[in-house]
Specification:
The termini are far apart. The protein has a single domain, classed as Alpha-Beta Complex (Spore Coat Polysaccharide Biosynthesis Protein SpsA, Chain A), CATH 3.90.550. About 30% of the residues lie in helices and about 20% in strands. The chain is of the alpha/beta class and about 290 residues long. Strands 1, 4, 5, 6, 7, 9, 10, 11, 12 and 13 form a ten-stranded mixed β-sheet that branches. The protein has a two-stranded antiparallel sheet with strand order 2-3. Strands 8-14 form a two-stranded antiparallel sheet. About 40% of the residues are buried.
Length: about 290
């Protein structure tokens, strides 16, 4: 009963998964982790920190791996009103996001917001994600791939679907990879994560665990629509080119909340000068 009361409170802890190598963004990720990729003059990570500060978050736990010191140098242990903590995933080269989420099992003991570190989005989209057991989704478009969900009339998630899976006529919604999770749900998720990791399924996606729990009724998510405002997941150079078009306006190019000091590794440039996004997009279109 105590947990139920706590879970109705606004979430103030975020868990950011940032362990991956970002190989599909190479060569931009040769000397910096993917979350420090610049989108119109501001890194993905800086945009995200500003949004979390705007929404009153107090704690950020970052699961790191590839070039972890760059992230730690950039964030330090305090960003605005947010205390920053780190978990290093030593197997980041050979594991997937299920392992990164599992790494946080002993550190997170409160409701939290789960985010991937390759997302850019309008800050207002987070407004309805600040209470537990919600999932961000947008209506699936022809160019989108990855995990999707179906949703019932009460906006509850009915099922998770793998990429290209048949929904048998039901509307499919792309998962944005932002989830708010109650403590009760987290406790159940950790048990399933423990089982998956002990079974050697370190290269799965955590959505496989969510999918199983939705089917057996041990997990429930209310969907929050991310349609109508810009958001984008940046996995490739082509994605970066599109994101830079979506976030061109002054609204998205101004740093509004936390003045970030320059990282201490400026001997390695943190810019996208190796292949400008526009040229990369042109090259890709020609290749097609």
């Amino acid at each position: 009963m105590k947990h139920g009361h706590q879970d109705k409170k606004r979430i103030s802890t975020a868990l950011l998964l940032a362990a991956g190598t970002g190989s599909r963004l190479y060569p931009l990720t040769q000397n910096a982790p993917k979350c420090l990729t610049i989108v119109n003059g501001i890194s993905i990570l800086e945009r995200m920190i500003n949004i979390l500060n705007q929404h009153g978050f107090k704690r950020l736990v970052v699961v790191t791996g590839y070039l972890e010191n760059y992230i730690k140098d950039f964030l330090g242990d305090q960003m605005g009103g947010i205390k920053v903590e780190y978990i290093f995933s030593p197997l980041y080269k050979s594991t997937n996001n299920i392992y990164s989420l599992w790494m946080a099992r002993k550190v997170i003991s409160e409701p939290f917001l789960l985010l991937e570190s390759d997302l850019v989005f309008d800050e207002s989209l987070l407004d309805d994600m600040l209470y537990p057991d919600r999932l961000a989704a947008a209506r699936l478009q022809p160019w989108m791939n990855g995990t999707s969900v179906t949703i019932n009339k009460s906006k509850k998630v009915k099922a998770f679907l793998a990429d290209k899976a048949d929904s048998f006529g039901e509307i499919k919604y792309k998962t944005v990879n932002i989830y708010s999770i109650s403590l009760k749900s987290w406790n159940g998720i950790v048990q399933r994560l423990d089982k998956s990791i002990s079974d050697g399924k370190v290269n799965d996606y955590y959505e496989t665990v969510f999918a199983q729990m939705i089917v057996d009724g041990s997990l429930s998510f209310e969907s929050v629509s991310f349609d109508g405002k810009p958001w984008y997941e940046i996995d490739t150079l082509a994605d970066l080119a599109i994101a830079e078009k979506l976030f061109l306006s002054d609204k998205y190019m101004d740093v509004k909340t936390v003045p970030l000091s320059a990282p201490r590794f400026l001997d390695t440039p943190l810019s996208n000068d190796v292949i400008p996004a526009k040229k990369a997009a042109e090259a890709l279109s020609v290749a097609k």
